[in-house]
Structure formats: C-alpha cells, structure tokens
Amino acid sequence: MTRACFTLQVRPDRLGEYAARHAAVWPDMLAALAATGWRNYSLHLRADGLLVGYVETDDLAAAQAAMDATEVNARWQAEMAEFFVGLDGAAPDQGFVRLEEVFHLQTQLAALDDPAAVPPTTDQRGTDA
After folding, report:
1. CB atoms within 10 A of CB 2
2. pTM across the whole model
3. Model confidence pLDDT, tens digit, residues 18-35
4. CATH code of the domain containing 25
C-alpha cells in the first residue's frame, strides 16, 4: 500500500467556495474515487490556501489513471481548476506536488518487533543526515 501526501495552492480569494464544494462532493465522484482505489483520502486547507492531501492506495499512478478514464473526474477537474494557482494548465489531480514521507509511526513500531521485516528509513540508508 502507498501512502501519498501532496500539496496544491488554492486561490486565497476562493477558500470559502472551495471548502463548500468539498462539503458536498458529487455522489458519482465519491463512488468513482472508491471504485478506482482511493482510500482514506482527505484534504486539509490552511488559511493562506495551502492545500495538503493524503490518500492511501495500492498504486497511485494506477489510481490516477483509472480516475482519468472516468467522465465524472473530467467534469470535476474542469470545475476545480479555477480554484488553484500554479498549475500551468495541468488538471489539479495531475498538478499536485507530492511530498516524501519521512516518518510513519506504525512502520517504526513494527521495526522494533522485527527489524529485518521493515525497509530502512532515509537516514538509515545514509542518503540524508
């Protein structure tokens, strides 16, 4: 399973409307997300427009491709595009900046029980200090 976190920038003058649209997402959009493997998906919005998203999926690229194939996603992305800055023509679901996970509690707790069963973190590989 992949845990993916990403950011986008919502236009500060559109924050209220953006939040309102997400308080009542279209039922067919919700169904499409679930059917294409998006699990535990949430969005968090800061007062300056920084949007942080989190999703769990078996394969993020495959989940994105599956959503791209749906008509409802094309309609949703077209409507949502006007809320964002810095996309340079990309759809919001393709223009986000993915963040690197540097800590996960359950992974480190599991490593305490069985260090051989858990892949090393970045600092254990020696690539970051």
Report:
1. 14
2. 0.82
3. 999 999 999 999 999 999
4. 3.30.70.100
